[in-house]
Predict the structure.
Amino acid sequence: MIRVQREDFDPGREIEHLTRGKTAIGGIVSFIGTVRGGADGVRAMTLEHYPGMTEQALREIEEEANKRWQLDASLIVHRYGELAPGARIVLVVTAAAHRAAAFEACEFLVDWLKTKAPFWKQEETPEGTRWIEAEASDDAAAKRWAPKLR
Amino acid sequence: MKLLYFAWLKSKIGKAEETIEPPAGISTPGALVDWLKTRGPGFAEALKDRRALRVAVNRRYVGWDHALAAGDEVALFPPVTGG
């Protein structure tokens, strides 16, 4: 399941809703990305996205994870709009019979969505607003998964 | 053809979207960008380095030599930074 929304989400409720009654699940892994404030003085962040393509890209990424790993459930929730430091940006949940699949698939989903889903972050700093540039380390993280593993 | 611009492309070009008919012979996103660059200083600045750009046609990533069709939705944007 994937969702793109302006509103915040409640990770506990999302996980409960996703996995309720699925008794084959033996392990659930979740990743929550948040707006990093801290030393570089970010006051706020605005996430822009490409409505339509975003949903399609996330669905394809989720399908790919489900091809590569035996998952009982998966979820991506990604926010857009204005977000304050500490705010939740993204939730990725994977559930499987065994933890290895859940851990690996969750990391794969995060790595791929960071380099493929059409979102752009703009930061407000004391010096003004600036668009965040893509990180080479994110590309490298995504490329680890490029060949089909299984 | 519908064109969409995101992130700093939108700021530099000064609009988020437009509907245009490119001249005959513009058959790939690469040729489209080269033509768009001639439309004004904002376009020239935003599109000067193709390596800093990504292109999607009808909401899918494509290469610069992808074959364009009439009525395509072409989106130009910088590398993505979500997550």
Strands of chain A lie at 2-5, 27-34, 44-49, 73-79, 81-83, 88-96, 119-125, 128-131. The CA atoms of residues 69 and 101 of chain A lie 6 Å apart.
